[in-house]
From TrEMBL, chain A:
Alphabetic keyword roster: Cell membrane, Membrane, Transmembrane, Transmembrane helix
Domain Na+/H+ antiporter MnhB subunit-related protein residues, every copy: 194-300
Principal location listed in the UniProt entry: membrane
Name assigned to this protein: DUF4040 domain-containing protein
TM spans (from-to): 31-51, 58-79, 99-119, 156-173, 194-214, 226-243, 255-274, 289-310
UniProtKB/TrEMBL annotation, chain B:
UniProt-recorded name of the protein: Proton-conducting transporter membrane subunit
TM region(s), chain numbering: 6-29, 36-56, 76-97, 118-137, 143-161, 173-195, 215-237, 249-269, 275-300, 307-330, 350-369, 381-400, 420-439, 471-494
Topological type in the membrane: Multi-pass membrane protein
Family: Belongs to the CPA3 antiporters (TC 2.A.63) subunit D family.
UniProt keyword annotations, A-Z: Cell membrane, Membrane, Transmembrane, Transmembrane helix
Entry superkingdom: Bacteria
Pfam families with a match to the protein in the record: Proton_antipo_M
Ranges for domain NADH:quinone oxidoreductase/Mrp antiporter transmembrane: 138-434
InterPro entries found in the cross-reference section: CPA3_Na-H_Antiporter_D, NADH_UbQ_OxRdtase, ND/Mrp_TM
UniProtKB/TrEMBL annotation, chain C:
Keywords assigned: Cell membrane, Membrane, Oxidoreductase, Transmembrane, Transmembrane helix
Membrane topology of the entry: Multi-pass membrane protein
Full protein name: NADH-quinone oxidoreductase subunit K
Bilayer-spanning residue ranges: 6-25, 32-50, 62-87
Subcellular location, record wording: Cell membrane
InterPro entries: CPA3_antiporter_subunitC, NUOK/Mnh_C1-like
Name of one Pfam family that matches: Oxidored_q2
Keyword DNA-binding found: no
């Protein structure tokens, strides 16, 4: 083994140990807040692991969605969900149950570890085929080709899931709040670090977000990662009180939320006429069509993520008319 | 493999129609959402019939490679006999629930849009889309996405009323469902690592009985069993299903659990090698038998009508698992009978249980409570509901003629024919217990209403429910009974595409 | 390509840790955190499978990687939904767990 190989092995081992330590802290932390901070740290370390696994697209998604957006939602919830210590300690299982749970979880983990080591070698897969069929489509990133072309139906259904989820979250509101603005309302901040951040960051973030979404067909990136950055910019401005969340009854917001999946469906159906069938692209038009879908999806992903972070409407609608 | 069989485009339409309708209904909102949902669900029922007819006529599964990319690189939609039967069941039950919901979920006059009706119609479409994806999907990862769609839509419907008591049980349901999905996903990664594809038809020829594959099957089975509330993972189901509004309970108990069931069939009858499946089958059936007995016994002891109906779901799901050792038995003819019995049980239970939950909801609405001890007068206030409940009960018990009878009779005779008489005993015992709890409800409903001891305001006089919803419950119950009147030969559809069946 | 075995073991360990947390943690939010650890472990295994299946010259297998991206978005949606239901439960009933110990009687429908 070369020196580089040894060094890489040591690095990977260290990274794996840190990932597991952060996961252990997330479970063992004395309170929900430090646990959630531990989870965010865990996510960042995991992002590095994804880079080491040769998956920059996944690393970006893990950082943006798995760690960033998930972390924000959990932190907001921790702040709002206080108390209940007595209830929690009453519901905490006794020693025997913990031992049994440990044995079960340990057994599953061990069996899984053995199974992963027993997977066939050389590993079967679609690496060569996916790579070979990406270039003729005019795309440079095989991951984007899988998401938009070979397994486009997965992505279509998943973008529909985001719409479901936004509506599900909204529908948790009490009846009288229907038509109101999602989430808490933050007082407008005109100075302080958040206000400064909220003014400086969005222009830069907007450019970066659009760029990451744009290059996704050829390089690591894409609608989910770019859309998340756009959503984050809005969330910063929202938390600083600079912008208000739109009402859940606002048709424009709803249109923005469904734009991605709807354009995807329409292009897919157009495939019956202009190509071999549903979700098929004519070779010459593949890239432009995919870019149109990606653009609409970026918008929808950004809207969905921002609104999921905001949560259900918490106030009755303002009567302006 | 060929990218698409004739009629394959039907599968795309069956999936995309509810998806598109849901997206548009979400934007338009208000009454437009209701009209769109009714139209799309009606059209969906028509499409499901066309799919069933096409499968029956072809005598072979329909397939469609999405985007023209054949598996393993691409995704396939497939419809065989099971798909067609479940798609049709789901479409009819959903249409019935939509008609039922027109009374309770109309947008109030004077409002452009109200929360609960808007969410109800959108999520009915969402559920229709998710079920179509779950029944048509030919790829195990695509099916994971479908399962998650189903979970989210079902949860939102279950929480629709926003009652304080609901959130805890629905949250428990959500966590169980999510853990179930993750365990399922864990299995798929091992399968991809082993075979480089997640396409069910391709895996069917390739899967070995090695350690990663067996662990994958165990994890996926545990996950799906948790989602189906198979004993002993059943504790989340009764409060979650009973606490939901009647229309939601009907689809949760009748349809949502069946998606996991179909996946379980795909796993054990298609993906896994027969020897491994034969080894696992008795265990699955033993858990099913325990579910039948425990669920029925606990249902007998319930004080609340909706909880009784929900525990009955735990028991009826148990019957589905009895088909595994019977349909895997060596004899081809017995296997075909057991197979039909299982699918017919899934379908007739969907109709019967939807009818029961809708009827129970109307009874509770008319009486102002659902305490079984005080059901007196229900027979006079909502007679159609009580009849619907009774007819659905016949099907659950397995009294001829009913779909439930045919299903249980097929399972019972298969058990006797393969010498596995102990499953036959469970079927008979479960039927007797079911008779017991259905009788409790019917006997209580047919007594005279309590006249004196009701303090004013606490127990209002039974109020008659409107006719439309009652008739919907009755229609569902009649379908579940009517399935038993069809000659067995007319169910040839269900055998199409079953591995090992004569082509 | 040396990273696969070690991250494979890490993924398996994360699944075990997450499962353990889901079983023993009482507070809902801690359960949701544990669910995310469990999910991360599963996704990591997809990453390992993708790298094992990589070609010698080219990169890793893009198909499982794309599945992880889809899975991450779905897991985020699940987390958002679970958090909202937990918050609503807390707002309305003050509860922070989903244990049945408080004798609440779910499922009954008084006062229709």
């Amino acid at each position: 083994m070369t020196l580089d190989g040894v060094l890489a092995g040591v690095l990977d081992g260290l990274l794996a140990a840190l990932v597991l330590a952060a996961a252990g802290w997330t479970l063992a932390a004395p309170a929900a807040f430090p646990a959630t901070i531990g989870f965010v740290g865990f996510g960042l370390l995991l992002t590095l692991a994804w880079v080491r696994l040769g998956a920059p697209d996944v690393a970006l998604t893990e950082a943006a969605i798995g760690t960033g957006a998930t972390g924000v939602i959990l932190l907001l919830a921790v702040v709002r969900l206080r108390g209940g210590e007595e209830e929690v300690s009453a519901a905490t299982p006794g020693r025997a149950l913990v031992l049994a749970a440990g044995l079960l979880a340990g057994a599953v983990g061990l069996a899984l570890a053995l199974a992963v080591l027993a997977l066939p070698d050389p590993a079967p897969g679609l690496a060569a085929e996916a790579a070979a069929r990406t270039a003729p489509l005019g795309l440079g990133n095989p991951v984007a080709a899988v998401l938009m072309v070979f397994r486009g139906l997965d992505t279509l259904l998943e973008s529909v899931v985001l719409v479901f989820t936004v509506l599900a979250v909204w529908s948790m509101a009490p009846d009288r709040h229907w038509g109101g603005r999602p989430g808490p309302e933050f007082p407008r901040q005109d100075d302080g670090p958040l206000a400064l951040l909220a003014r400086l960051l969005p222009p830069v973030g907007l450019v970066i977000g659009i760029y990451i979404a744009w290059v996704g067909t050829d390089a690591p990136g894409g609608k989910f990662q770019g859309g998340t950055i756009l959503a984050a910019m809005w969330v910063v401005a929202w938390a600083a009180g600079l912008v208000q969340a739109p009402s859940v009854a606002d048709r424009r917001v709803r249109l923005m939320l469904v734009a991605g999946p709807l354009v995807f469906v329409l292009v897919g159906l157009a495939g019956f006429g202009i190509a071999d069938g549903f979700l098929a692209y004519p070779p010459a038009l593949a890239k432009p069509l995919i870019l149109v879908i990606e653009a609409a999806m970026t918008l929808s992903v950004a809207a969905a993520l921002a609104l999921l972070i905001a949560g259900p409407p918490e106030h009755p609608p303002e009567r302006v008319t | 493999m060929s990218p698409a069989t004739p009629g394959g485009s039907l599968l795309v339409l069956a999936l995309i129609l509810p998806v598109a309708a849901m997206l548009v209904a979400f934007v338009l909102g208000g009454r437009a959402a209701e009209r769109l949902a009714l139209a799309a669900l009606g059209l969906g029922a028509l499409l499901a019939m066309l799919v069933a007819a096409a499968v029956y006529r072809a005598g072979a599964p329909l397939a469609y490679a999405v985007g023209g990319w054949a598996p393993p690189l691409g995704l396939a939609l497939r419809a065989d006999g099971v798909t067609a039967a479940m798609l049709l069941t789901a479409a009819l039950v959903l249409l019935a629930v939509a008609l039922f919901g027109r009374t309770g979920h109309a947008t109030p006059p004077g409002l452009a849009e109200a929360r609960a009706p808007f969410a109800f119609w959108c999520f009915l479409l969402a559920l229709s889309a998710a079920l179509a994806a779950a029944f048509l999907g030919g790829d195990l990862f695509n099916l994971f996405v479908a399962l998650e769609m189903l979970t989210f839509a079902a949860l939102a419907l279950a929480c629709l009323e926003g009652k304080p008591s609901q959130f805890r049980s629905e949250l428990r349901y959500l966590l169980f469902a999510l853990i179930g999905s993750v365990l399922y996903l864990l299995g798929t990664v091992l399968l991809y690592g082993g075979y480089g594809t997640l396409d069910i038809a391709l895996l069917a020829g390739r899967a070995r009985a090695d350690a990663p594959t067996l662990l994958a099957a165990a994890l996926m089975t545990a996950g799906l069993a948790a989602k189906m509330a198979l004993f002993p993972l059943h504790l989340w189901l009764p409060p979650a299903h009973a606490g939901a509004p009647p229309a939601a309970s009907a689809v949760l108990s009748g349809l949502v659990v069946k998606a996991s069931f179909v996946l379980l069939l795909r796993l054990w009858f298609w993906v896994m090698p027969p020897l491994a499946a034969a080894a696992a089958a008795p265990l699955l059936a033993a858990l099913g038998a325990a579910a039948i007995l425990a669920g029925s016994l606990v249902a007998l002891r319930q004080a609340r009508l909706k909880l009784l109906v929900a525990y009955s779901t735990v028991a009826q799901i148990g019957y589905l698992f009895l088909m595994f050792p019977l349909a895997l038995a060596g004899d081809a003819e017995v296997a075909a009978r057991a197979w039909l019995g299982g699918i017919l049980q899934a379908s007739s239970h969907a109709f019967a249980k939807a009818a029961m939950f809708l009827a129970a909801g109307l009874i509770a609405g008319a009486l102002g409570h659902d305490r079984i001890a005080a059901l007196g007068g229900a027979g006079r206030a909502v007679p159609v509901c009580v009849v619907a409940f009774g007819l659905a009960g016949l099907s659950l018990m397995g009294i001829p003629p009913s779909g439930g009878f045919t299903a249980k009779w097929l399972l019972l005779t298969s058990a006797v024919a393969t010498g596995q008489w102990w499953w036959a005993l469970v079927i008979v015992g479960g039927g007797v217990l079911t008779g017991g709890y259905v009788y409790r409800v019917l006997a209580g409903s047919l007594t005279a209403p309590p006249v004196t001891d009701a303090p004013i305001g606490d127990a209002p006089l039974p109020a008659a429910a409107s006719r439309g919803p009652q008739l919907v419950a009755l229609a569902l119950a009649l379908v579940s009974v009517g399935l038993g009147l069809l000659p067995l030969a007319s169910f040839g559809l269900v055998q199409v595409g079953r591995l090992g069946a004569a082509p | 390509m040396s990273g696969a075995p070690i991250f494979g073991l890490t993924g398996a360990a994360l699944v075990g840790l997450g499962l353990f947390g889901l079983l023993v943690q009482a507070a809902v939010l801690r359960k949701i955190l544990a669910f995310n650890l469990l999910g991360a472990g599963v996704f990591l295994l997809f990453g390992v499978v993708a790298q094992r299946g990589g070609t010698a010259g080219g990169g890793a297998d893009a198909v499982p990687q794309a599945m992880v991206i889809t899975g991450l978005v779905v897991a985020f949606a699940a987390t958002a939904l679970a958090v909202v239901v937990a918050l609503r439960m807390h707002q309305i009933t003050g509860a922070a767990t989903i244990s049945e110990s408080d004798g609440a009687e779910p499922g009954g429908s008084d006062a229709a």
